[in-house]
Specification:
alpha+beta
Length: 106
């Protein structure tokens, strides 16, 4: 696994693999859009600049850049919630509600 808090770059369509004991690891996106998928996890995750994903289970994690991106990988505490966490979930919900509001007003 990578050193903690080491900033890295991924060009579009590049991919990295995180394996070993990755539970509790946090992948944060500083620029661009990252796509994450994990062995045994039925859902994939997109994280954009300013967002982070905490790995809540064991298994290989693949991180791919959908556009030129900057990211960091750090060792964090295990995610109590078992998913991306309430802050990221709230931001996604707020973004969806804003999209619906804009469509209704148009």
């Amino acid at each position: 696994m990578m050193k903690s808090e080491e900033a890295r770059r991924l060009c579009r369509d590049e991919m990295i693999r995180l394996d070993g004991d990755v539970m509790g690891t946090v992948v944060s996106c500083g620029k661009g859009v990252l796509w994450l998928t994990q062995t045994g996890n039925p859902g994939d995750h997109l994280i954009r600049a300013g967002e982070a994903f905490s790995v809540g289970r064991r298994g290989v994690v693949l991180v791919s850049a959908l556009e030129d991106s900057a990211y960091a990988v750090s060792e964090g505490k295990s995610n109590f919630f078992g998913f991306e966490g309430p802050c990221l979930a709230f931001r996604r919900m707020a973004r969806r509600l804003e999209t619906v509001r804009q469509r209704l007003l148009a």
